[in-house]
Design brief:
The protein is about 30% helix and about 35% strand. The chain is of the alpha+beta class. Strand 1 and strand 2 form a beta hairpin. The protein starts with 9 loop residues before the first strand and ends in a 5-residue tail after the last strand. Component of the proteasome complex.
């Protein structure tokens, strides 16, 4: 088993019309043993920027603290919030700087820019950025998520439609992965704020 699969888990981000969604499951495991059902893999950077992290949970917590520290330093120096694309460059350079002893985590970034245009991207553990206009996935059930997202995705979804699409795609993929699941959480980021909803999933 890969070290990236040791704790299980997955993250999905999808773009809509002036909105973006990011979602993850809530299972924390040690290989096939379930340890907790309230794992947090999505972290708020600011009101229009969220970071999802999959992989080894200890590295996920370390990176969350590191990126929030760097983001607050930027806000103090620049007196403004960091744009999603700029944050993606920050995450990428941070991961690449540790390439010889990498953090075992694959980030997913979702946010809205100053014009409320969605921005989503994913990276590998060395910081190679893959920007997309539709959806990005990471984690143990990434292959299943690609299939379900391609099936359900439509262009320019409104926030309610985006929530339904992300929820159906995520739950369908989780049913096909034994080391992810046990419920999910979905964040819908719009120009008016963030809506957070929890989903019930299979508990077996």
């Amino acid at each position: 088993m890969s070290i990236l699969e040791y704790n299980g888990g997955c993250v999905l981000a999808m773009a809509g019309k002036e909105c973006v969604a990011i979602a993850s499951d809530k299972r924390l495991g040690v290989q096939l043993t379930t340890v907790a059902m309230d794992a947090n893999r999505i972290f708020r950077m600011h009101d229009k920027l969220y970071l999802g992290l999959t992989g080894l949970m200890t590295d996920i917590q370390t990176l969350d603290q590191l990126f929030r520290f760097k983001l607050e330093l930027y806000a103090m120096r620049e007196n403004r919030l960091m744009k999603p694309k700029t944050f993606a460059s920050l995450v990428s350079s941070t991961l690449y700087s540790k390439r010889f002893a990498p953090y075992f985590s694959e980030p997913v970034i979702a946010g809205l820019d100053k014009d409320n245009k969605p921005y989503i991207c994913s990276m590998d553990l060395l910081g190679c950025v893959a920007e997309e206009t539709e959806f990005v996935v990471a984690g143990t059930c990434a292959e299943s998520l690609f299939g379900t997202c391609e099936t359900f995705y439509k262009k320019d979804l409104e926030p309610d439609e985006l929530f339904e699409t992300v929820s159906q795609a995520l739950l369908a993929a989780l049913d096909r992965d034994c080391i992810s699941g046990w419920g999910a959480v979905v964040h819908i980021i719009t120009k008016d704020g963030v809506q957070t909803k929890e989903l019930d999933g299979r508990m077996d």
